[in-house]
Design brief:
The protein has 17 helices and 15 strands. It has helices at about 15-30, 75-85, 100-110, 130-135, 140-145, 155-160, 165-180, 190-200, 245-260, 275-280, 295-300, 320-330, 340-345, 360-370, 375-385, 390-405, 420-425, and strands at about 1-5, 35-40, 55-60, 60-65, 65-75, 90-95, 115-120, 185-190, 205-210, 230-235, 265, 290-295, 310, 335, 350-355.
């Protein structure tokens, strides 16, 4: 089949969406399917092909002022029209609800092409992208004010985590996302918990669950054991504000009171790193925290087994690939009760779940787990068992069935809407 992907984020920028797109397109292309991937142009590091059956089509883009890490793809109706008319896709797959997603669903309606949308990211939970707090860099101001304090109270830091939560903005973003996904023929959720959430959000189209999957031939481990006084904690992912890595650091500062020899390694890059580095300085824990920067996914399977416990405080995971990678390598995990995380971090089975933003809870549960060697070994074994349900080949089979099912909808009624007329799509 000929499948056309649209995504407002892709390699060389590395995130969960980009990794998912890469994995599915590469593995399905080995089965004879052909792909075009419409994605932003980043500049240095861009590439145009991934094998004979996968071509990347880059679009001009700018940056979102309040969040430079996000690309805004500029309208290119002629380029989209040419892409569709030359490639003749049998299915259009939308991976993000940004402008490329909007262009994609309009083009799909104009040409009557079956459309599926994966709900990778809960954009309504990321309203900080347009937040005044982020726009004016008040996180920097906060730490400048506090740098003259001899001692910074963790409880005071926690108060600044839940800032600027305007429900009206959240509702606007939610309506925009719902309008886009409800124009698809089918919606994919990476987890069962997120499927339930999407129904509550108001998604009316059929929803099927397809895990982003994991290469268990590469991310593999054995049951781990831990005893001692120097646990090694790990956090991996995009170091962006919505991942709440500041909550992890607050928790680690409390953990150090019990395990003074503990270390925390933070792997990844992103706009929040300067703030987090200032935070470790303010808490006087810099010597115990290492920011390792970006490590290619191709090397991560060798990294996870070197650590004892995975920590996350992210409140917007639709699945959490890094969590899946870590448990596949046998690590227990401690995270927060938000969206899909409890599906991978099962409370009392392979880790613990605490309320969102609860740094003290993260610390207490981590200490409890690492102080009990028998419980630790039991949780490690359970992590391997839970990860086994997400074997990549099984997920690729599920995605292929989705495309075949959508392929039967060829000949859909074509629609002409105002955006098609304005941009001349299909004109």
């Amino acid at each position: 089949m000929r499948i056309l992907y649209f995504s407002d984020t892709f390699l060389p920028k590395t995130d969960g969406v980009a990794v998912s797109i890469k994995n599915f397109s590469e593995l399905l292309s080995l089965r004879g399917h052909e792909f075009r991937i419409a994605a932003p142009r980043y500049g240095e590091g861009d590439f145009e092909r991934m094998g004979d059956n996968i071509q990347i089509v880059r679009f001009r883009s700018g940056y979102l002022p309040s969040y430079p890490d996000i690309k805004v793809v500029l309208p290119s109706p002629g380029k989209i029209t040419k892409l569709i008319e030359e490639f003749k896709p049998e299915v259009i797959h939308i991976h993000t609800p940004g402008l490329l997603g909007v262009y994609a669903v309009n083009a799909a309606e104009r040409y009557g092409i079956p459309t599926v949308g994966t709900y990778h990211t809960l954009m309504a939970e990321q309203e900080m992208y347009v937040s005044f707090y982020r726009l004016f860099k008040l996180d920097k101001l906060f730490f400048k004010i506090n740098k003259f304090k001899k001692k910074l109270n963790i409880e005071d830091l926690d108060k600044f985590v839940k800032f600027d939560n305007f429900n009206i903005r959240k509702k606007i973003i939610l309506k925009i996302c719902n309008d886009l996904y409800n124009r698809c023929d089918l919606v994919i959720s990476p987890s069962h918990l997120i499927k339930k959430q999407l129904i509550e959000y108001g998604i009316e189209k059929p929803i099927t669950v397809v895990s982003n999957g994991m290469d268990l031939k590469r991310f593999t481990g054995t049951t781990k054991e831990f005893s001692g006084d120097a646990p090694k904690f790990l956090h991996v992912g995009r170091i962006s504000y919505e991942k709440n890595c500041d909550v992890v650091i607050n928790a680690f500062a409390l953990i150090l009171r019990h395990f003074p020899k503990a270390t925390l390694t933070i792997i990844g890059e992103g706009p929040a790193i300067p703030s987090l580095q200032r935070q470790t300085e303010a808490l006087s824990i810099t010597a115990s925290v290492e920011f390792k920067g970006f490590i290619p996914n191709a090397e991560l399977h060798n990294v996870y087994p070197q650590y004892d416990l995975f920590l996350t405080a992210s409140t917007m995971e639709t699945q959490g690939l890094v969590v899946l990678e870590s448990i596949a390598c046998g690590l227990p995990a401690v995270g927060v009760d938000s969206f899909a995380l409890p599906e991978l971090i099962q409370d009392g089975k392979n880790g613990f779940i605490v309320p969102p933003f609860d740094s003290r809870g993260l610390a207490e549960k981590s200490i409890q787990l690492l102080s009990n060697p028998e419980l630790y070994k039991k949780f490690s074994s359970a992590s391997l068992e839970i990860a086994s349900e997400h074997e990549m080949e099984r997920c690729v089979n599920d995605m292929e069935e989705v495309y075949k099912k959508l392929g039967t909808l060829q000949g859909k009624e074509k629609k002409l809407n105002i955006l098609n007329m304005l941009f001349g799509l299909g004109g």
